[in-house]
Amino acid sequence: MMAVREIYARRILNPTRIPGLRYSLNPYVGCAHGCVYCFADYMRKYTGHREPWGQFVDVKINAPHLLRREIERAAPGVIGIGVVTDPYQPVEKKYEITRKCLDVLRVWKGGISLLTKSDLVLRDADLLREIEGVEVGISLSTYNRKFAAELEPRVPPPDERVEVLAKLAGSGIKTWLFLAPLIPGISDRDRDLERLFEAARKAKVGEIFVDLFNPYPGALSRLLPHMEKLLPGKGKSLLMSYKKDRMAYSSEMKMLLLRLGWKYDVRVKFSF
Ligand code: SF4
Question: What is the band of 183 on the pLDDT scale with cuts at 50, 70, 90?
Fold first, then answer.
């Protein structure tokens, strides 16, 4: 059962070193989406929760109030919403913290970059359209429905997520796609990637931004059994070779994705 707790944050806009962003804003701590490879599970140790990752959420109920005060003094710059945990996870339906923050940000001129895996973002298209310099990104690690159902079981299938971007673009909102994390054997199948790029072009996605899987011990141990289930006999060895030599895989993927970007006329950028 999901543990949901209401908390009072001390501040809501935090400086960040993520390229292209000046601040990060996360309305929730923890994430009910519970993706197997999630890197944000390190936050659990600061929360006092005993539930496993994906089974707890803390709701920063004073976030809109704090934000109203903080933006009065904040220097201009892009605010990244949801850079740690998903701002449109299921509790947002009830609490509407993200929506209330967007309402406050209608006066912000520094730009906003929002990232989610949920179609709930469509609810707020009206507000997003009103904010200057807003960009919405949707993340996915694979375009393969079977793989996604195993690794990202509580979010819409990948093709439906790209459809969300098409709808946002249709409302005049700038969009991007976050292809991450790239997982060997999962994210790199030719047929899935061709279909993904074709769908991205049709959805008028402005850019595909790509990041690698970070094989730190926590994420690796959660991912391994799922890899063996999806790719029996080779899932584990694929991950282990990747862990030993990420350079080879990243160069190969760069070449492949740049070629697809050129073929489908979609801009591709890399964090590596
Ligand atoms: S949606 Fe993002 S933050 Fe939430 S579990 Fe998945 S990867 Fe982690």
Answer: very high
